[in-house]
């Protein structure tokens, strides 16, 4: 499998921080760190925009999805708002992560903390939305928002 090359420009406030990296051989996401200058506290039920200090050049035909880290969610109730966030191939601004604290205690974000994971994904290159008076029927139909229930 040929690797996808994503160029990464490090901004001055990310000096000394690692580039996004997969923590295990088969991890689908690469952890990205906080490029905060000083500790930032996110109170319960509040959100914060956390800088990474990185600009990505993503190849055409791909996006990078910003996803939560399961440990932060399970242990602290901290997750990524707007999940998955999308970084488009033509975006050249700093990657920032919207963290939300759904926990009951303030959450501290420190410089270099792994705050989210970046997952490259292929996107459909040719999309053509066409208006129609009719669409085909399926067994599911209009069922959504938990229509299959909780138990099997």
Could you please describe the fold and organization of this structure?
The radius of gyration is 19 Å and the shape is globular. The chain has about 150 residues and is mainly beta. The longest helix has 7 residues. The chain has a four-stranded antiparallel β-sheet with strand order 1-4-8-6. It is about 5% helix and about 35% strand. The chain contains one helix and ten strands; from the N terminus they run βββββαβββββ. The mean pLDDT is about 95. The protein starts with 6 loop residues before the first strand and ends in a 30-residue tail after the last strand.
Shape: globular
Cα-atom Rg, whole angstroms?
19 Å
Helical region count? 1
**How large is the share of residues in beta strands?**
35-45%
Q: Structural class of the helices, strands and pairings?
A: mainly beta
Q: How many distinct beta strands?
A: 10
Strand arrangement, major sheet? 1-4-8-6
Distance between the termini: 37 Å
Helical fraction: under 10%
């Amino acid at each position: 499998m040929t690797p996808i090359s994503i160029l990464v420009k490090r901004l001055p406030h990310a000096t000394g921080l690692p580039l996004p990296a997969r923590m295990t051989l088969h991890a689908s996401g690469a952890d990205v760190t906080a490029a905060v200058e000083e500790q930032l506290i996110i109170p319960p039920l509040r959100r914060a925009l956390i800088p990474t200090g990185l600009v990505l050049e993503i190849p055409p035909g791909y996006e990078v999805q910003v996803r939560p880290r399961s440990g932060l969610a399970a242990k602290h109730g901290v997750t990524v708002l707007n999940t998955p966030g999308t970084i488009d191939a033509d975006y050249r601004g700093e990657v920032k992560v919207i963290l939300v604290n759904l926990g009951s205690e303030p959450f501290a974000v420190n410089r270099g903390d792994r705050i989210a994971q970046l997952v490259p994904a292929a996107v459909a290159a040719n999309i053509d939305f066409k208006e129609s008076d009719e669409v085909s029927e399926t067994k599911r139909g209009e069922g959504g928002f938990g229509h299959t229930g909780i138990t099997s």
